[in-house]
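Milestone 3.1: sequence recovery, worked example.
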């Protein structure tokens, strides 16, 4: 634990380094009005913070910069995320007021929104099929032996399945099968469906159509990987000093399974921020991740997050991720 003075000095160093990307000297810290301490006292305290692993001096004659441990203390001391500006709040409000259409496009646009708000790469993990339930189901006849099943899921996904039959099926049977499906599928989980998931309607042709519709809708979802949408990856070039770091980060962002695992690990630890070595990946040693889960109809659905340098504006990133995650979940719940 740090005493109040060391904690205050460390916060000043972190905030100044985040702002300027330049090592912070004792004279600058001593000039902060709220501290009311001399340069000599600040130098002594900064030396102790360096000894204890919170700060490091990159060059002998330079000031000091935070370590991962210093950033962690700073993040843990944040009582609540920083406020978003009026322009940012308006941007989020307008985005979700106009967000309609296919889920995949909306999630991709959401990642771009979050990247624009923070100036970091943004990641949105799509809702998993494991938690999806069916909101509505419709069956439409396309030809005597062809029908189209359209199911709207609770996670915002619209599933479409073309069903081909061995025999001609009239409009009345298609309508009867559609009504039977709508009555028995609504509220059901995709993973609960099977060929015998719905009781017989009584007519063999109608039952055949119902069975094929259910089988086509239920198949293969348990093996589907989570979809990941990345926005603002090009912003990495401006966020890091070396080309090699940029290349390593971009490589990670292209590996969807790794990205999902990283975000889930942070959430599973009960955290919202992962810093540097905490990721367990050497290629992300200079990066921080800020994440927030979002819910659909009260159930955990997916994750939003940003990835940037450890020298990121944590209060702003926490605020942006929290607000966008909350608005995204509410939007998908409302349908």
């Amino acid at each position: 634990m740090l005493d109040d003075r060391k904690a205050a000095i460390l916060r000043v160093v972190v905030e100044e380094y985040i702002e300027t990307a330049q090592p912070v000297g004792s004279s600058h810290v001593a000039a902060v009005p709220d501290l009311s301490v001399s340069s000599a006292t600040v130098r002594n305290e900064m030396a102790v913070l360096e000894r204890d692993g919170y700060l490091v001096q990159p060059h002998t004659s330079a000031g000091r910069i935070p370590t991962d441990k210093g950033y962690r203390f700073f993040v843990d001391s944040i009582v609540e995320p920083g406020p978003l500006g009026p322009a940012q709040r308006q941007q989020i409000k307008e985005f979700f007021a106009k967000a309609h259409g296919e889920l995949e496009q909306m999630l991709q646009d959401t990642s771009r929104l979050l990247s624009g708000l923070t100036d970091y790469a943004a990641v949105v993990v799509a809702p998993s099929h494991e938690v999806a339930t069916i909101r509505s189901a419709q069956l439409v006849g396309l030809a005597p032996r062809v029908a189209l099943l359209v199911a709207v899921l609770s996670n915002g996904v619209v599933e479409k399945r073309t069903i081909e039959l061995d025999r001609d099926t009239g409009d009345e049977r298609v309508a009867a099968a559609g009504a039977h499906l709508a009555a028995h599928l609504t509220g059901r989980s995709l993973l609960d469906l099977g060929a015998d998931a719905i009781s017989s309607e009584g007519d063999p042709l109608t039952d055949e159509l119902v069975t094929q519709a259910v089988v086509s809708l239920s198949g293969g979802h348990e093996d589907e990987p989570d979809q990941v949408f990345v926005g603002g990856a090009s912003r990495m070039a401006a966020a890091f000093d070396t080309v090699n770091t940029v290349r390593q980060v971009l490589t990670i962002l292209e590996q969807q399974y790794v990205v999902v695992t990283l975000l889930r690990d942070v959430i599973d630890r009960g955290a919202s921020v992962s810093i540097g070595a905490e990721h367990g990946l050497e290629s992300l040693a200079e990066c921080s991740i800020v994440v927030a889960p979002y819910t659909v109809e009260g159930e955990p659905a997916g994750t939003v997050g940003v990835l940037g340098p450890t020298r990121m504006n944590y209060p702003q990133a926490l605020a942006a991720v929290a607000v966008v995650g909350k608005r995204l979940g509410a939007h998908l719940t409302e349908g």
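The first helix runs from residue 4 to 20. The chain has a mean pLDDT of 86.
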